[in-house]
Specification:
The chain has six helices and four strands. It is elongated, with a radius of gyration of 20 Å.
Length: 156
């Protein structure tokens, strides 16, 4: 893989630690990866500028904020031209309940990760907005029971 060729073991350690804790101080990060603070900071900046690090964010506790439903929806479109796919993808950006949108292959065209305050809120979204959206042919929903794993997106 060409990306790994650009990264040495220290870079990978930095990425692993930042994925675990994006608020770690540069001093603590440098200690964990085994280099002094100034070169560590330079490496982090270089990883950011090269696009290996897209950003930083807080991971919120949804239930404590009143969002008790996590669900996934698979969506099949009537027509899958490039313009139709782009139009539906853009539409999902306008729905706050949709937290992630993935274009997928197989029986469906899109997979939506949704977070809602309650079941009624989710059902209203599915019936009144998602299934009623232009070019939507099929919608299948899956309510989650509980999350059993929550790791960073990349296993490095």
């Amino acid at each position: 893989m060409t990306i790994k060729a650009e990264l040495d073991t220290i870079d990978l350690k930095i990425l692993r630690e930042l994925q675990r804790d994006g608020r770690i101080t540069n001093v603590e990060l440098s200690e964990r990866v085994g280099i002094s603070a100034p070169p560590c900071l330079r490496r982090v900046r270089k990883l950011e500028q090269a696009g290996f690090i897209r950003g930083y964010r807080a991971v919120l506790n949804a239930p404590s904020l009143g969002f008790d439903i996590v669900a996934f929806c698979t969506v099949g479109l009537k027509h899958q031209s490039d313009a139709n796919l782009k139009a539906f993808a853009a539409m999902t950006n306008k729905w706050p309940i949709v937290r992630e949108t993935w274009m997928v292959s197989g029986e469906s065209d899109f997979l939506l990760h949704c977070v809602a305050r309650n079941l009624t809120h989710f059902q209203d979204f599915v019936v009144e907005e998602l299934a009623a959206a232009e070019n939507v042919d099929t919608v299948r929903t899956m309510l989650t029971i509980r999350q059993v794993k929550d790791e960073g997106l990349v296993a490095i």
